[in-house]
Amino acid sequence: MITLNPLVQSYALLPSPEPTFKSSSPKNPNAQIIAQDWDAEYEVTDLVSYLPFHLWDSKVTFRAKFKATEEGMESLVNAPGGVVSDARWWVQEAVDGSLVLEETAEVSCHRALARTVKGQMRESHGVLAGRFLERLEERRVEEKGKGGGKA
């Protein structure tokens, strides 16, 4: 998922995280996520545009955790400015056989950052979702070619 996001400038896999990670989400202040439940944690650097037409861009570095689930994957992002994104992604097959990427996410941040965060997420998520489905479809075709059935 990291490499599919158009905002990502760089990323690095981090060593095993601390025993626990406390989410600072105001919507779920009691959320405590055990780090051992996560498959991997990365330090990610995005190029964020604060003004239209990229008049003021800046790099923002944050931590992102990922976990494979039976249905798809989960991610937890903890970025500067109190930006927290807790998301679940899964793929379903439509009636016509095409693949549909579904996502539920809870994003919280300081009110002053809300417009920028929302804009960046809208801009990047469409591209990310399209790239993800393209990759998944390529794998599905490869598997069918190998006689492996559905991916």
Concise structural overview:
By secondary structure, the chain is of the alpha+beta class.
Description of the structure:
With 151 residues, the protein is α+β, with helices and mostly antiparallel strands. 21% of the residues lie in helices and 42% in strands. The chain has one helix and eight strands; from the N terminus they run E-E-E-E-E-E-E-E-H. Strands 1-4-5-6-7-8 form a six-stranded antiparallel beta sheet, with helices on one face. A two-stranded antiparallel ribbon has the order 2-3. A hairpin with a 3-residue loop joins strand 5 and strand 6 (72-79). The longest helix is centred in the C-terminal third of the chain and has 32 residues, at 114-145. The model has no long low-confidence stretch (mean pLDDT 83).
Task: Give the mean pLDDT.
Answer: 83
Q: What is the SS-derived class?
A: alpha+beta
Principal-axes shape call: globular
Proportion in β-strands = 35-45%
| Radius of gyration using CA atoms only | 17 Å
Number of strands: 8
CA-CA gap between termini: 17 Å
User: How much helicity do the residues have?
Assistant: 10-25%
| Low-pLDDT residue intervals, each spanning 5 or more residues | none
Q: Please give the order of strands in the largest beta sheet.
A: 1-4-5-6-7-8
SSE sequence, one letter per element: EEEEEEEEH
Q: Sketch the major β-sheet.
A: 6 strands, antiparallel
H/I helix tally: 1
Question: Which helices and strands, and how do they pair?
Answer:
Layout: E1 8-13, E2 20-22, E3 32-34, E4 40-49, E5 57-68, E6 72-79, E7 83-93, E8 99-108, H1 114-145
Antiparallel strand pairs: 1-4, 2-3, 4-5, 5-6, 6-7, 7-8
